[in-house]
Each structure stands twice: as structure tokens, then as C-alpha cells.
TrEMBL record:
It comes from the Bacteria. CDD domains: FC-FACS_FadD_like (cd05936). It holds the Pfam family AMP-binding_C. This is Long-chain acyl-CoA synthetase. It comes from Cellulomonas iranensis. InterPro entries: AMP-bd_C (IPR025110), AMP-bd_C_sf (IPR045851), AMP-binding_CS (IPR020845), AMP-dep_synth/lig_dom (IPR000873), ANL_N_sf (IPR042099), ATP-dep_AMP-bd_enzyme (IPR050237).
Length: 568
């Protein structure tokens, strides 16, 4: 066993009782976490997907089958395997199967356009992709621009309970709607994941494979970082393992007792760690939903009451409202962790009133696997604060222009983070890695904070210009690049404006090229919708005579944003 420790420091005044300041990180790969859960809790339900249950023993068996299938498809240690999947049991099986071979998982949003997928698939060099049926046509459209050799279709409905699968064949409107939402046309010649699992030859397992090492790359997780250019954060087995151990220390969860609700998308760093890997670390039952639907969550809650909910604020608010309206019982949820955007005090109070449990904020980045700070899971929590550094995590607050100079206590500055969960760099981007990671291993977050007297970190402002809407990140430059090609638009600046529980909404400030008819919000959204994810589409359009610029000609987005209220 090896131990990752930093120099001892005094505990902050708000430090929760029972939480260690430092944790031991075993010298083992992330897959050892699953092996331990299978060995110690074989009969506990590991996954509940819309009522279809899988025990830890069964999950381990399916992962071994999945590894054999992937090996038969030519996947070897170090190869990248793309997962283009919504939340489902197959997503978990595929994730752990890839890691079992020492290969690298590359997560993708299954709602991305063909162009967005092509960029990420080509950048990672993935050779095999496991793809939700509805996304198969888009991946095939992108395939010629990538290194993909094999595309395997995943039927979401195959993970349903037997009775639910049979009901989908009924000639009823409701069955047809559900079937259409889960399935999609798959061209001839594209193999199906579940069929491969049923027919994998036994001899494939005889070839064996080496156990991955802690320092091996486990995951490429795409993020815009501070620039908006999508790039893959390189996360090792040790990075991901460390964050699950830190999370367990923070929550003080007992193995084999929790029921975690997986409503966050697994393709997002927040959902991947807080649901997919953390739940296995604590041998929890993970209740998986393909997307967030309050009615569906309440139905699952009646069947299998949850204890822990990782979520973004709009989810918490909508779920609490639905429970209040229907009289549903959410009191089994002892705690919730809110992330990706600021938690409004009203949302926190509503959730705690409905559940009787606690909700606290966490802070992190894809580059920190992702959690780095959290508010105490005690009555000392403070809504609006980012919280305290996780165990074995250290922070510094430095001058925004000179990261080598720490600011005085209580003053604001850029947040730097160090810890075992800090990523190894950006995939094949040494220059951008050097900009983000200082030579001594400290990560520049690009966020401006202050540290209060009790040690709590409070966000002051963002150095980044990205927009956070509904927990998703939107990078202005990407939206602007698409809009500049639209007939009638001479120039554009995309910014965010406050939007209540959504965090921010995307606003496009445009300069028209003469008196061109038909350039309105509907036309702008229609132009963008084949190129951008739905959450990135502009929600408001403002026409300006010109855009404010710096002396070197750079559009001043901050000025645009500050002036938006005059055009409301």
C-alpha cells in the first residue's frame, strides 16, 4: 500500500468531525474496486435500471463477458474505446469491461451531432465504439474522419425487465412511443452488443490480459477547459480511485448500505464519479435512469427508496416540487450533493424541507476527477460556499496575473488545487497542459475565490467565459463560430445571463449585415440545432449596431454581458 499525503496543516474551523484530513490511496487499479464489491457483496443489488436488477455477482460476470467481447474485437491494453451511451446497465458493464483489459474509456454525449462526435473520436484515436442505437447513424457518418474500425450498436431496451421488453411489442401508442425513445434503426452489418455477449466464444478468455496498473490511463474525458476548444483530460486509474476514496471519507458512507440515484449523465465527469465509480466503491445499489424525469424518479423512489442523490440544482428543485405536488415521500434521502453550478438558497431550503436531509455543494473540474472541494455534510454547511478541500487535497489562492504569489488571507485570487485526483494533463496537448498544470503539479482552475476565516472557500467570479446552463458547459466561441456562417450575420458575441435555477441562459448578441430579413431567434436556433447540442442553443437574441472591442480588436464579452439589461 502506498500513501498520498501532503504536509500536515491545521484543520479549518468548519472541518467535519470524523472526516480524516488525509486518506490512503492503495497501489491498485480502479478495477480492484469492482472486484472487492463482487467478492464482499455478491448478492447485493448493484444496479436497478427501471426495475431490472443486477447483483454484484452478475455485474462481475457480465463485465468479464464484455471484456472477452472487446478482446475478440481487437481491443488491447492502451487502446481507446468510445462509449456513446445514455445511462443504462450496459453503460456500466461497458465501462468496467474496457478497464478490465487495460484499455481506455472515452466518454461521449450521445446527443452530440456527427461533427461534434467526429472531432472527439478522431482526437482520441478510438478504434472501437459502443453506441446507442439512436446515435449509430451519426457515428457512422463521422467514421470516415476517425480511426474507428468497429461500431457496435447498443439496444437500450434490452436492459429493461423482461415484462417491460415484452410490452414494447404491443400495438399500443404508449408502447410505440417508449420503443421509439429507446431504439433506433441500425444498418445491416453493424453488430449488436447484447448478441455478442450471448455468443462470445469461450476460447477468447484463454488468451488472458494483463491487469492495468494504477498509473495507467483509465479515462479520456472531454472538456473545454478555459478556452472552449474541446480537449480530453487524461485521468488515470489512481486519479479516479482517489476521488472515490475521498468521496467515501467525506460522506462517511458504510459499505453495502447506500442507495444512490444515478440521474446525472454518466458521460459527464460529475455523474461518472459520483454515480458510476463511487457507488461501486461503497458497494451501493445504483438506481439508474436513462434521463432525468421527476415522475420516473418518484416511481423508482416508491420501488427502491434512495439515500443519496448527486444532482444539479434544477433537478433538486423540480424533484422537490413534484414531491410536494404529489405527496411523494422523499424522506429516505439523507443527503444530496449539488454541483456544476451555484445552489440557490431557496432550492436548498426546499429540498431540505421536503426530505428532512441535507444538501451541500461540491466544487470540482473534469481535471480533478472531478471533486476537489465540498461543504460539510453537517449542520455547519453553508449554502453559497464551495466548501472545504477534500481529504488529501490542498489549495492555494494566488494573484491572477502571477500564480507564484499567494494573496493575503481573506483576499480574492485564483484558486490552485493539488491532490491525488488532479489529472495527468490533456491528451496530446503539451502546450495546453503546461498552461493549466504548473511545474510543481498545482492545477490552475481559472476561478477567482476567497477563503473565509472558517476555511470555507467562496466563489467570487470566473476567469473563464464559459456559460453554465442547467449544469452543462457552453463555450461561447463554439456557438459564435457556427453563427458567423449564417447569412445575414456580420458579427456575433455569445454570453450568458442569469436565468434563476438554470444558472445562465445563452444569449447571442449579433450585428446584422445590412437590412437582412428573417434573422430572428427562431432562425438562429434552427441554424444552430444541427451543429450544437440543444442546451447550447441561444435562448435570447439581441441586435446591436456594433460589438465592444479591446484595443487589439478582441470582442469584450464581459462588456456585452454587462450591457444586456439595457436590451432586455
Amino acid at each position: 500500500m502506498t500513501q498520498h499525503r501532503s504536509a500536515p496543516v491545521d484543520l479549518p474551523a468548519a472541518w467535519p468531525v470524523g472526516v480524516p484530513r488525509d486518506v490512503e490511496i492503495p497501489d491498485e487499479p480502479l478495477t480492484a474496486t469492482l472486484d472487492r464489491a463482487v467478492r464482499e457483496h455478491p448478492d447485493r443489488v448493484a444496479v436497478d435500471f427501471l426495475g431490472a436488477t443486477t447483483t454484484y455477482r452478475e455485474l462481475g460476470e457480465r463485465v468479464e463477458l464484455g471484456a472477452r467481447v472487446l478482446h475478440g474485437l481487437g481491443v488491447r491494453a492502451g487502446d481507446r474505446v468510445a462509449l456513446v451511451l445514455p445511462n443504462c446497465t450496459s453503460h456500466l458493464v461497458a465501462f468496467w469491461s474496457v478497464l478490465r483489459l487495460g484499455a481506455v474509456v472515452v466518454e461521449h454525449n450521445p446527443t452530440y451531432t456527427a461533427d461534434e462526435l467526429a472531432h472527439q473520436l478522431a482526437d482520441s484515436g478510438a478504434t472501437v465504439a459502443l453506441v446507442w442505437e439512436q446515435a449509430v447513424p451519426r457515428v457512422l457518418e463521422a467514421q470516415d474522419r476517425t480511426a474507428l474500425r468497429r461500431v457496435v450498436a447498443v439496444d437500450l431496451s434490452a436492459d429493461l425487465p423482461r415484462a417491460a421488453r415484452a410490452a414494447l411489442r404491443l400495438p399500443l401508442p404508449a408502447a410505440r412511443r417508449t420503443r421509439d425513445a429507446m431504439r433506433g434503426p441500425v444498418p445491416a452489418g453493424v453488430p449488436h452488443w447484447h448478441r455478442l455477449l450471448r455468443t462470445v466464444p469461450a476460447w477468447i478468455a484463454a488468451e488472458g490480459h494483463d491487469e492495468p496498473r494504477p498509473e495507467d490511463v483509465a479515462l479520456l474525458q472531454y472538456t473545454g477547459g478555459t478556452t472552449g476548444t474541446p480537449k480530453a483530460a487524461v485521468l488515470t486509474h489512481r486519479n479516479l480511485l482517489a476521488n472515490t476514496i475521498q468521496g467515501q471519507a467525506w460522506t462517511q458512507a458504510e459499505n453495502g448500505t447506500e442507495v444512490v440515484y444515478g440521474v446525472l449523465p454518466f458521460f459527464h465527469a460529475f455523474g461518472l464519479t459520483l454515480c458510476l465509480t463511487y457507488s461501486v466503491r461503497i458497494a451501493a445499489t445504483l438506481v439508474v435512469l436513462p434521463n432525468f424525469d421527476p415522475a420516473r424518479v418518484l416511481a423508482a423512489q416508491r420501488r427502491r427508496p434512495g439515500t443519496f442523490l448527486p444532482a444539479v440544482p434544477p433537478m433538486l428543485d423540480r424533484l422537490a416540487a413534484a414531491a410536494e405536488e404529489s405527496g411523494a415521500d422523499l424522506t429516505s434521502f439523507r443527503y444530496a450533493i449539488s454541483g456544476a453550478m451555484a445552489l440557490p438558497r431557496e432550492t436548498a431550503e426546499r429540498w431540505e424541507r421536503v426530505t428532512g436531509g441535507l444538501v451541500v455543494e461540491g466544487y470540482g473540474m473534469t481535471e480533478t476527477s472531478p471533486v476537489a472541494l465540498g461543504s460539510p455534510l453537517t449542520q455547519d454547511r453553508r449554502p453559497g460556499a464551495l466548501g472545504l478541500p477534500f481529504p488529501s487535497t490542498r489549495i492555494r489562492v494566488v494573484d491572477q496575473e502571477d500564480p507564484t504569489r499567494e494573496v493575503a488571507p481573506g483576499e480574492q485570487g485564483e484558486l490552485l488545487i493539488s491532490g491525488p485526483q488532479v489529472f495527468a494533463g490533456y491528451w496530446q496537448r503539451p502546450e495546453e497542459t503546461a498552461e493549466q498544470l504548473l511545474p510543481d503539479g498545482w492545477l490552475r482552475t481559472g476561478d477567482v475565490v476567497r477563503v473565509d476565516d472558517d476555511g470555507m472557500v467562496v466563489l467570487v467570479d470566473r476567469m473563464k467565459e464559459m456559460i453554465v446552463t442547467g449544469g452543462f458547459k457552453v463555450y461561447p466561441s463554439q456557438v459564435e463560430d457556427h453563427l458567423r456562417g449564417m447569412p445575414g450575420i456580420l458579427d456575433v458575441a455569445v454570453v450568458g445571463e442569469p436565468a434563476g435555477d438554470l444558472g445562465e441562459r445563452v444569449v447571442a448578441a449579433i450585428v446584422l449585415d445590412g437590412d437582412v430579413p428573417g434573422v430572428d431567434l427562431a432562425a438562429v436556433r434552427a441554424w444552430c440545432e444541427t451543429r450544437l447540442a440543444r442546451y447550447a442553443l441561444p435562448r435570447r437574441l439581441v441586435v446591436l449596431p456594433d460589438l465592444p472591442r479591446s484595443q487589439v480588436g478582441k470582442v469584450l464579452r464581459r462588456v456585452v454581458r454587462d450591457n444586456l439589461h439595457t436590451h432586455a
